[in-house]
TrEMBL record, chain A:
The chain crosses the membrane at residues 64-89, 101-127. This is DUF3341 domain-containing protein. InterPro entries: ActD. Keywords: Membrane, Plasmid, Transmembrane, Transmembrane helix. Pfam families: ActD. It comes from the Bacteria.
Amino acid sequence: MSGERSSDNHDVYGLMAEFDSPKRLIEVTQSAYDRGFRLMEAYTPFPVEGLDLALGYYRNKVPLTVFAGAVLGGLSGFLLQCWSAMYYYPHNIAGKPLYSWPAFIPITFETTILGGAFAAVFGMLYYNGLPRLYHPVFNVPEFVLASDDRFFLCIQSRDPLFDPKETLGFLETCGPRVISVVPY
Amino acid sequence: MSFDTDLASATAGADLQAQFDAVQKRALTAGAIGLGLSLVGGLIWPSTVLPAYLVAVLFWTGISLGSIGLTFLHHLVGGSWALPLRRPFEAGAFLIVLMAVFFAPILLGLRSIYIWTNPEAIAHNEAIRHKVEVIKFLTPSFFTIRTLAYFAIWIVAALVLNFWSRAQDGRTDDAPSRRLYVVSGPAIVLMFLSATFAAFDWGMSLDPDWYSSIYGAMFIVGELLSTLALMTVIALRLSAFEPMRRAVTPDRLNDVGNLLLAFTMLWAYMTVSQFLIIWLGNIGEEVSWYLRRTRGVWGAVSLALIVFQFFAPFLALLNRETKRKAEWVLPIALWILVMRVVELGWLVLPASSEIGVARFPWGSIPWILTSMVGVGGVWIAAFVWRLRSAPLIPLHDPRIMAALEHSGEVLV
């Protein structure tokens, strides 16, 4: 049955419901999450507080990526200085030992931040699937309003619980302005 | 998620009042025992006990000073993070009056603490002689006058904060809060300057042959960090009762955790800056301060400060999940307080010791404990007395109301 269903949904990206208010969108998203839908995405003209929680996006891998990037940046900065000061270009500066770790701290601090910042930006882009030149949601004409004053929730056909009829029925009970089928 | 700010629901209930009574009784008992022991010890071995007493006085004065500073800061920037902390801050600020009294033994025992009162040290060291005899900055009388002036400034600031904030409770127009907003900016400048000079006088002049212009900032950041940590502990303990239960939400705890993280990093930044500049300069008259604090047991203490006062809370507070849970934030805040006492001991006790002599003042350690308990017990008892004399949540504060409105919490 499930195999059949997924082949049925092959040429539909998902179902998209359009709402008037961010508050309503959060409520609908929450009830969709409570029903078990996971592969869904919300689109709003401005950041809506609490929407990330409703979507279940509370946990993501960005913090861990940033931490790893920061540690990597700090280590490489520190080791680079150790290598250049101790082996590549050993030099007597103010009579200090070649391994003068306190002098390496500012650069280590900066490369830690650099590594963390790079990991944050590029990690965020990677996990968001960006850059992306084509996205099916733009096939829905009304979607242009997502950057104006409308709030959208799109339940994707990849979701194991997705069933064209049932999901449509569920979205209809939520009182949206319009429900659109999003083609690939 | 609703939060109404009427008088009845913002005042402590009967169960909390009973708890307050119990805490006051225990704190007063502990305080009396600690102070009694310190007094007896101080009369017998003044030069061992008084520096330890100075550690405790610097700690608790720092809490009151940090409370004044953070209250002014909140009046300036607003936000709902301080909703559960404002009244504890104000009560802590008020106790600067108590700390003025507790400072008297320091002024009476200057000769047992500060080496610049010793004619022999003055004669043997040109740098000390300059500060004492030529420019006459470090003299007991001028030192006392300056100390009195600092306390005068701070007491006025604390009274203004307490009086106008409580005046706001009883009225719906925002005149008292507006006045506080206007004075907060200049007051923060004045607080920062006076606290810097106080840190120079009380802490830095322990090593009168040495100076560092970042010392004041480093000291103040340490005070702010410990203040925030103690007030977080207090708010979390109070959050078992209404109205604090509603005020301490995971979001606010997250904000406070972020502030603790920021001040931990700022403390490390100041401390490392001072060390790095002196280490790079490598001048005899500057490195003495570090030589006294990095030899023998003090070297282990220095390492412990790096690992446990910076890295431990820093790494623990990085995680967002941690900052949202009281069972994590409470031990971290307590840990920060413990490390602040260790840091103050590290700043005060090795002062003026002979360079190269790795002698650790084991004898002073128990007196740090008696003084901390003694001054702290009385401080906590007075704190509770002050805290329970007003609603535990500031009422009708326009900046808090605006922040509550923004986060969607209902207002009355």
